[in-house]
User: Fold these one by one.
Assistant:
Number 1:
Amino acid sequence: MRAAIIRANSLGGLFSFKFIRNIKSMSSSSSSQDFVSRPVIKKVFAKLQKEGDGAVVRRGISRSEQKLLDPFLMLDEFSVSPPAGFPDHPHRGFETVTYVLEGGITHQDFKGHKGTIYAGDVQWMTAGRGIIHSEMPEEEVNKGLQLWINLSSNEKMIEPNYQELSHSDIPKAEQNGVEVKVIAGESMGIQSPVYTRTPTMFLDFTLQPGAQIHQNVPESWNAFAYVLESGEGGGVFGSSNSSPVSAHNVVVFGPGNDGVSVWNKSSSKKLRFVLIAGEPIGEPVVQYGPFVMNTQAEIDMTIEDYHYGKNGFEMAKYWRSQ
């Protein structure tokens, strides 16, 4: 019974605000003059798989990509309808970012928090030393993204924390056929209010036919894109003569250079993708389902803490979502 709970996926978050971390060198430009893009080194098609209780996800990042994309652990594009969902399950040692694209997700945790996020809303959950929560669909069709971001060893056991942005609070900019929603980091001169313990950029771009974007990314960071919508011949990444990339693909960029260049070469369809980048932590990663630590001994201790309800999991034996 507990093994089934441990394997359950997460889609969670709650409410509070933190001050923004000021990250420089993240502006973007619609001009390619003097801009050197990172090359594309890998493409991964996100295949459908079952997760949670009857839900379906496309897993774009899994353990095989973790070394290339430190600090990122997982990216899922989820689709869930009642009565399926993500019932009570624990986390420790990392953060989850939930971005709802359609419908809504209702969440609650063992500390008494409860709320619903709807299309365009974001919740950034720091699991820290331990959280148990549920995420269940609010409407008939519910879709979105969930990103897992690792925490450094000195932050894995901090108290849980939550940030929340409604769609109206997310900064947006538009120029030359390019629209960006700045979930974390900075683009086109605007900055997100989200505080990122592990420095992170999370941008939602929409390019009209014929548009292009050249987004700066700090040189030492790892970066990837996930394509949400693309017309025939549309999304071209890294180099203008590269092969187009269709929806549900992860595009992994190599290191260095100024940042990332993207072109929409479709004659009629928009291109929508998220660009995600982060500062590598450079520490060992040992993962057991929803627990992510640095050593196997820490994982063993986490399982014991969860089983016996201690060190952050005190309510594990008593709490059940409503």
Number 2:
Amino acid sequence: MKPCWVLLTLAILWLELQNGACQQVNRRKEVGENRIRPGGKRAKVRYPKLKEKEAGGRGQSILTQVLDKGRFLRLGESVSLSPGNNIELRCKGSNIGWSYPIYLDTFNDSRLSIKKSDKYSQFILTSPSAADTGMYSCWVTLCDGSECLKDPDRTSRTYIYFPDKDDLFVPSTIHFEIVYLRPDRTAVIPCRVTSPLAKVSLHREVPPEEMEVDGTLVSYDPTKGFILQKPSPEHQGVFYCKAVTKAIPQISTKYQLLYVEVPSGPPYVTIEASLSSARGGDNINITCTVLGEPEMDVTFTWTYPGQNLRPVSVRDSWRLINRGMGHTTRISQSVMAVDDLETIDFGRYICRAKNKRGETAVVTSVHSN
């Protein structure tokens, strides 16, 4: 009986092993990419659809360059293109805004054209040159009625270089440029280059010396120029940039660096009359003076006795002055002249000075003897 029991046990074990092996084979087929249907046809594998970011919607650049034969190149942070060859850029979307070097608009350049369609916007620039080097960007515009906003998640930009061995620096119509230095903000000496491969150095004209560029206090960005992180009076003077490639070195525009003493804010105003006490028939001048930032325009308005009843003359002017330690300040003045004083001319003279950061009013009085 024992041999029979042994044989029966072995038979049962063999059947269980066979059944398990078949199940494992079936599982391997389920993992595979190709399936066989009962009819003998192959079934296509359906992959799950990717979400918008995974598929490259908001996560990818919407700005592309159109190449020959219908090919497209998705643009990154920067690209170098040959001058003279027309460029076509496309931005995906039905409502697109563009930004490009401002002088193309300033001079109403006919080489530039922008065309829009339902699916994309087309930007074409013919015969580009070294002067066209700069930042180009596009974005999707979202509108709610008459109010439109730039979509920050669908904005792309690229800096395009147009290398030219004869113009290592981006050409400028200004041959001597003023750069104002302030202790509370960075300053930029805008000597941009047309090729990212150019080696650029910064030089002072008097005394002649090359400035140290340590990458921290002074650094260079080919898309902006030399950046001074903490300007000081020692940085004043006339400077120029020198660029070197395989060709002959070239010199940039000259830059006059002026240190600004007056902080930003509403005008700081003083008023003074040539005579505080006068008699009929006298002539007086009332002077309103503002010390401010060199490039900050100031406008003056007056309120005075006899206004609209008799003529007076008002003369406005401004100039740059140095005030100790080489600090540069703009002095703006408005001078009111009142000739042959009459009774109606005695009283309060109010001067209001206004810049883009605010307004200040000051007052003085002229009394009769």
